[in-house]
């Protein structure tokens, strides 16, 4: 006997209500139950970052997150970053810098970049942050590469991805 649990989340600005099996991941709830296919199922083990979304403003691997744990949360996918129908500055930077090839990892890369830029602006250090005691995090290429290291690209567009994040962060 499978028991379902009611869940209410906001996805890309739209309130969504559904009943899910308590074992359902946020990724599967988005893709299979809500037809939000922007986050991709890459490895389904939290190793590739293709499923990265923003939950309450923080980057999350949706394949490792139980949907029921995010009841009441605000989930933003790459499609929801610019709700007015335009393009988000990170998306524009990815396009301008040819920071994708096949495009499969791009939605997760873009969400991760948005989260990484926000973390740096809030002074959150990473393993590459030079001054851990300071309040300022400089998003240089090493810092960006470290912060984006959880997002893999099979096409190896890393140089252009770092350039795109660097450009977007400077705006």
TrEMBL record:
Residues 5-81 form the 2Fe-2S ferredoxin-type domain. It comes from the Bacteria. The keyword Glycoprotein does not apply. PROSITE patterns: 2FE2S_FER_1, 2FE2S_FER_2. InterPro entries: 2Fe-2S-bd, 2Fe-2S-bd_dom_sf, 2Fe-2S_ferredoxin-like_sf, 2Fe-2S_ferredoxin-type, 2Fe2S_fd_BS, Aldehyde_Oxdr_Iron-Sulfur, Beta-grasp_dom_sf. It holds the Pfam family Fer2_2. The keyword Oxidoreductase applies. Keywords: Iron, Metal-binding, Oxidoreductase. This is 2Fe-2S iron-sulfur cluster-binding protein. It comes from Actinomycetospora termitidis.
């Amino acid at each position: 006997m499978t028991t379902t649990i009611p869940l209410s989340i906001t996805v890309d600005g739209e309130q969504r209500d559904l009943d899910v099996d308590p074992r359902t991941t946020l990724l599967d709830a988005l893709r299979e139950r809500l037809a939000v296919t922007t986050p991709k199922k890459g490895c389904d083990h939290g190793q590739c970052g293709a499923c990265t979304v923003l939950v309450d403003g923080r980057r999350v691997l949706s394949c490792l997150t139980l949907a029921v744990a995010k009841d009441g949360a605000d989930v933003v996918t790459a499609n929801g970053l610019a709700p007015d129908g335009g393009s988000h500055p990170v998306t524009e930077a990815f396009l301008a810098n040819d920071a994708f090839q096949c495009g499969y990892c791009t939605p997760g890369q873009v969400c991760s970049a948005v989260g990484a830029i926000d973390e740096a602006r809030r002074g959150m250090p990473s393993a590459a942050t030079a001054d851990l005691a300071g309040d300022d995090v400089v998003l240089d290429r090493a810092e960006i590469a470290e912060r984006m290291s959880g997002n893999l690209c099979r096409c190896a567009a890393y140089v252009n991805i770092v350039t795109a994040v660097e450009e977007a962060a400077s705006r």
